[in-house]
Amino acid sequence: MFSFEFFPPADGTGYERLCATATALTELEPSFFSVTYGAGGTTRDRTIGAVEALSAAVDTPVAGHITCVGGTVQETHAVIDRYAAAGVAHIVALRGDLPADGVAANGYADATSLVAGLRRRADTARFEISVAAYPEVHPLAASAEADLDNLRRKLDAGADRAITQFFFDTDAFLRFRDTVAAAGIVHPIVPGILPVGSVAGALRFAGRCGTKVPDWFRPLFDGLDDDPETRQEVAATVAIEQCERLRAEGVDSFHFYTLNKPDLPIAICRVLARSQRGALPPVHAS
Ligand SMILES: Cc1cc2nc3c(=O)[nH]c(=O)nc-3n(C[C@H](O)[C@H](O)[C@H](O)COP(=O)(O)OP(=O)(O)OC[C@H]3O[C@@H](n4cnc5c(N)ncnc54)[C@H](O)[C@@H]3O)c2cc1C
């Protein structure tokens, strides 16, 4: 199963492009699309606009992300109400990064209380809720154990699944998945996959999120700055190999960080869908 994450476009033309991207991705029969939400509500109206536009454009369910720091409980609920009015029934519930001054608004303090709050509301109690997980540990977590406890609290509060931060070290995900299972957590842990559209961008994100960059990663893209086609091919191959390895280890759902571009996810998922069906045509049919 595939799902695809977008960020909210800046303007009306961006919405049209986003809907065209989503429409192109529907050929992969995704389980849902999701739209990110700027911490502190910085993209609130654009995120809601994108969720509304997507919901009107495609039949695929659309999930709205929400971050709770930087907003009051009432402001958070108002966004959820707008999502519900657009037909959304799946929330990706996040704390969001703390503001630079470290002062949060008087709202839900973390993802656990946000999930609990959504479950308490009669009209959102039935929503699907996804939360974030960190195979390589959240950069601010006191320890891997504390991070795991935090994940357990979010799931115990009523979340249905966790979607992970992206990673290039597939073993790190597999170890995390096994640790989560050994801790008695039975909820699905869906790997977040980042197809590398821009090497500089991927390295920047990785630095911010605490994602390890393995030794093999940079040399693969060396000398390809002015060769986007070869870069795309390398990026697609890396993601396909990663997903095939995960699938061989029993993973059957993948969440793609699309960066609003359909080409790489389509190429990757077409190959994955074909190999999943075992329908590789014979090379020399006689
Ligand atoms: C799939 C996915 C989607 C995302 N989408 C967005 C988005 O749309 N917008 C956005 O701004 N960001 C997004 N993020 C990033 C996320 O907001 C940041 O990583 C943020 O810093 C943490 O959010 P959280 O929901 O994981 O927080 P939480 O789960 O609440 O906690 C995060 C950290 O705080 C620690 N912690 C929490 N509570 C306690 C406690 N009581 N005691 C001790 N430690 C505690 C945890 O161990 C963890 O280290 C996303 C991340 C992922 C993986």
Spell out the blueprint of helices and strands.
Elements: E1 2-6, H1 12-25, E2 32-35, H2 44-57, E3 62-67, H3 73-85, E4 90-94, H4 111-120, E5 128-133, H5 144-156, E6 161-166, H6 170-182, E7 189-193, H7 199-209, H8 217-221, H9 228-248, E8 254-257, H10 263-277
Parallel strand pairs: 1-2, 1-8, 2-3, 3-4, 4-5, 5-6, 6-7, 7-8
Bound molecules: flavin-adenine dinucleotide.
Flavin-adenine dinucleotide (FAD) binds at residues 36-39, 65, 67, 92, 94-97, 110-111, 132, 138, 140-141, 146-147, 150, 154, 163-165, 192.
Task: Quickly list its features.
alpha/beta; 14% strand; single chain; globular; eight-stranded parallel barrel; 45% helix; 8 strands; binds flavin-adenine dinucleotide; 10 helices; TIM Barrel; 286 residues
Describe this structure in words.
The protein is of the alpha/beta class and 286 residues long. It has a single domain (2-277), classed as Alpha-Beta Barrel (TIM Barrel), CATH 3.20.20.220. The protein is 45% helix and 14% strand. It has helices spanning 12-25, 44-57, 73-85, 111-120, 144-156, 170-182, 199-209, 217-221, 228-248, 263-277; strands at residues 2-6, 32-35, 62-67, 90-94, 128-133, 161-166, 189-193, 254-257. It has an eight-stranded parallel beta barrel, surrounded by five helices. Strand 2, helix 2 and strand 3 form a beta-alpha-beta unit. Helix 4 (111-120) packs parallel to helix 5 (144-156). It is globular. It binds flavin-adenine dinucleotide. Flavin-adenine dinucleotide (FAD) binds at residues 36-39, 65, 67, 92, 94-97, 110-111, 132, 138, 140-141, 146-147, 150, 154, 163-165, 192.
